[in-house]
Design a protein that fits this description.
Elements: E1 11-14, H1 18-27, H2 34-41, H3 50-57, E2 60-63, H4 71-74, E3 80-83, H5 92-100, E4 107-111, H6 116-119, E5 129-133, H7 144-151, E6 155-159, E7 175-179, E8 196-197, H8 200-204, E9 209-210, E10 216-217, E11 223-227, E12 230-234, E13 249-250, H9 255-264, E14 268-270, E15 284-290, E16 294-299, E17 302-307, H10 310-322, E18 325-326
Parallel strand pairs: 1-2, 3-4, 4-5, 6-7, 8-12
Antiparallel strand pairs: 9-10, 11-12, 13-18, 14-15, 15-16, 16-17
């Protein structure tokens, strides 16, 4: 609640995450205390937090950037500035302090214990008033595990210094990782699949091959980019000639069909006497005697051509391509 003297004072929240943060406070119940959770689920008209009323009254303004449309029109001075980031060395704070530091009517509220002289050194001489205040945030250690039980995460990252306070539990359904300053850790990808965007011009240039009624595949040379939380495939403009690109094949090879394809090309070949039963899941071989000696071994997961002659190898590969699916 604000005293009457402050009833007309506007409040500006300047951050590219401002709208998301405000929306989060009224939509996600897990972090709320029990009384506020009950109020949220009961759908009472009364707002959970005071900032909702401030927004309705037009006293709280949310802007993503300092140059946002409408900010200058609503701007009023002098200002009271709450700054949790004590450095004042980056982002919007630098521009604002350059404007306000010489006006003693303005007030800068910093985190308690911050070296004020060091913080304001780039803005000297400074006439702005400075006040220290504690901005305690977070939760108590004993409430971490109950919160995790509600959120049910797949992976939890803790600071290394909290390892003794928040040890990993063997029966926990989630994994723990501990990080520390200056050290790199590998974070496993816990997503089983994800959606990838593809530019329209690239999509129309694909030549998909139908595998079944629901699936078609195509081949594309591109780089995977992550932009604003979304994956996008970006194809280079200098795409190589598709007709000269070697095919990629998949699926098990039918030994009988391959034998027929080789013989149609004039290649003398046969199944070895001890390897012609055709049992499912067994490795099979085709022995080639002319125009050069070669051996083709076919297993459920791979097919290998053994041959010293390049010309004969190409003929065998062409025959193999004619009986396999490829793109």
């Amino acid at each position: 609640h604000f005293p009457p003297v402050l009833s007309q004072v506007p409040i500006f929240m300047i951050s590219d995450a401002a709208e998301k943060i405000i929306s989060f406070t009224n939509a996600v119940p897990e972090w709320l205390c029990k009384p506020r959770q009950e109020k949220l689920f009961s759908r009472e008209e009364e707002a959970l937090f005071g900032h909702v009323e401030l927004l309705k009254e037009g006293r709280l303004f949310l802007f993503p950037h300092l140059y946002s449309k409408g900010l200058l029109a609503a701007w009023k001075e002098p200002c009271i500035v709450f700054c949790l980031d004590w450095s004042l060395r980056h982002s919007t704070a630098v521009h604002l302090l350059r404007r306000w530091h010489a006006d003693k009517r303005n007030l800068l509220v910093l985190e308690q214990g911050v070296d004020t002289e060091l913080t304001l050194k780039p803005f000297t001489p400074a006439a702005i008033q400075v006040l220290e205040c504690s901005f305690l945030s977070g939760i108590k250690v004993r409430k971490v595990n109950p919160l995790l039980a509600v959120l049910k995460p797949k992976l939890v990252l803790f600071p290394e210094e909290l390892k003794s306070w928040c040890p990993s539990k063997e029966d926990a359904p989630w994994s723990y990782l501990y990080y520390s300053k200056g050290k790199t850790i590998e974070i496993p990808n816990i997503r089983e699949d994800f959606v990838v965007g593809l530019p329209t011009d690239v999509a129309f240039g694909l030549q998909p091959r139908q595998l079944d009624k629901a699936i078609a595949i195509a081949r594309l040379r591109a780089k995977l980019h992550l932009s604003k939380g979304q994956y996008v495939l970006v194809a280079p403009k200098d795409q190589s000639d598709e007709s000269n690109r070697q095919l990629l094949h998949w699926g098990a090879v039918d030994a009988g069909r391959l034998l027929s394809a080789l013989q149609e090309k004039g290649i003398e070949c046969a199944f070895p006497a001890d390897n012609d039963d055709g049992s499912a899941g067994c490795e099979r071989s085709i022995l080639i005697t002319s125009p050069g000696e070669a051996l083709v071994k076919m297993a459920p997961d791979r097919t290998v051509i053994y041959c010293d002659d390049e010309s004969t190898t190409k003929q065998i590969y062409d025959a193999l391509s004619s009986v396999c699916n490829g793109i």
